[in-house]
Amino acid sequence: MKLKYKARTKTGELQSGLIEAADKEAALNTLSSHDLYVISIDEIKESHWLDFITNFFGRVKSKDLMVLTRQFAALLGAKVPLADALRTLQRQTKNQILRETMGEVANDVDAGLSLSQALDRQNNVFSLFYVNMVRSAEITGRMEETISFLADYLEKETIIVNKVRNALIYPVFVIVLFFIVAIVMIIFVLPVIKPIFEESGVQLPFLTRVLLDSGDFLSTWWWAILVVVLGFGISIREYLKTPEGKIVYGETVLKLPLVSNLLKKLYLSRFAESISVLVRSGIPIAQAIEITGHTVGSIVYREALHQAAEDVRTGQLFSQALAKNEILFPPIVTQMVAIGEETGKIEELLKRISEFFGREVEELVGNLVELIQPIIMLFIGVAVALLFASILKPIYDLASTF
After folding, report:
1. Is residue 331 part of a domain?
2. Which residue spans traverse the membrane (predicted)?
């Protein structure tokens, strides 16, 4: 198979490229034999629409992974041996994909691999951050504490996602229902009463004429519209897979009026918490920054953190590296990091940054949840009023002529 890798030499130089190997483990061994420290390695697969469907329905929900991690922490806290804990988790979980994954992890551990190596082989389920946290716990011997932290981390992420999702379910349902009703009326109802208006000579309002013309156009060219929409959607999807598309999408999302402030604070909370835990676990600051770049959830922040890691390797202070990008890292972040560097308590200051922005995120999510529904319902109310006015007004005018 062909794999794409990123690695560092003994001198800290970043290398990336492609390697042919029988499997990922063989590729890791080959790269390690060349004195390379592997940061990431992924198999290159040809995209296929069947793969997209399989991944969508076969994915592991964050809630299932959070529950499994919480159970894992409880088993380790009860001093259950690692191999037995993994087998127990395999039997306990109800998610079929996760059950098979844990079976493979348990088999790999029984075969002599470390837990982090076994998890890394299941990178479609366990993120790079998750794997590196386990790897650091193996070095420091703080496995139970680390797994408990991961469970808390996943739980907070799940709570935020569920809040937003639950707030959007009803408005999205109403919007979809409105568009279905509007399309039915435009295509099937208005064309039936159109001849009556034409014979009576009633002057139709502008909005009614627009709806009638739209109905005619949709009835005649619906297939062309479908082809254009599908083609446009596929083109956008493929473009967003490219490096340029990912960057454009990441930058665009961070500029959206209502979302940008929330996302920036969410990414800052993740960034600070991840680096704090990694540094506390004994991972060098530059490596911790680089790992965090892969787990923060934004390609824009990833590129900024990778550059910051390079700057730190060249001898700059972490706070100085962050200060170069004030748009992504506000002064409060760089100042607190600088204080942490001066006092030697950078992981503690980063933890405070994470807690501060975590509270900000919770407050913003709560406000958005309260605002989303009334705003959307107001929009739907206005749209429904215009739709029915465009139909009832000419009918009223027609009735008044008799």
Report:
1. yes
2. 168-193, 221-240, 375-396
